[in-house]
Amino acid sequence: MRSLILLLALFSLTGCMKVSDMAAGTEYHLRDAGVLEHSDTRRASTWRLQADSFVFIAQSHFVPPGKAYPRPNVVAEEAFKAFVEYFPLVRRAAQPQGLEEAMNEARSSGAHYLLYTRFAGADDRIGTVVEWEDQEALDRLGVDSGVIQLMLIETNTRYLVDTARIRNRGGFLTFYDNQPEDMLRQPFERYARSLLGVSEQ
């Protein structure tokens, strides 16, 4: 009798919620528990951009400390792939640039804003047999992590509109053959949505 009441209570609770909401909630908790990849974005301001804003994306020359060696310009590439879904006017630098060089190119291309990024930290842990054979260190087993820093600058006035910090952490179900740079797209999509004031999907 108790199991029947428990089963009826469970069905009544699930009847109040859409399947997509249940899936989103489950995914959130799995990410928070470290089973799936997780990222945390901290913005300094709540500034919003118009949808027709022209954003130029560039990455600094800075190489993150640690044992990870992400390919040059990977942050700008992933940011561009995320931003192009939300901003129709977006361009990116072809290679890493200094801040002044990026600002000059953004201005010459007619961009309203410069999104200047850098890979501030990256930890590429052992996640494959090949990596184990290279390092053979038990303390290097585990999930990858990384930190991205962003500056959003208005090109005409050089006003620092926003700064943000993105912390990424891999998950135990997704750590095999994963690199810190493989976790960039989703946080950049969330950041682009937050700049537009669009809620999470």
UniProtKB/TrEMBL annotation:
User: Is Signal set as a keyword in this record?
Assistant: yes
The reply to whether Signal figures as a keyword in the UniProt entry is yes
Q: Which UniProt keywords apply?
A: Signal
Signal peptide positions (record): 1-23
Return the protein name. Answer: DUF4823 domain-containing protein
Q: Which organism is it from?
A: Aquipseudomonas guryensis
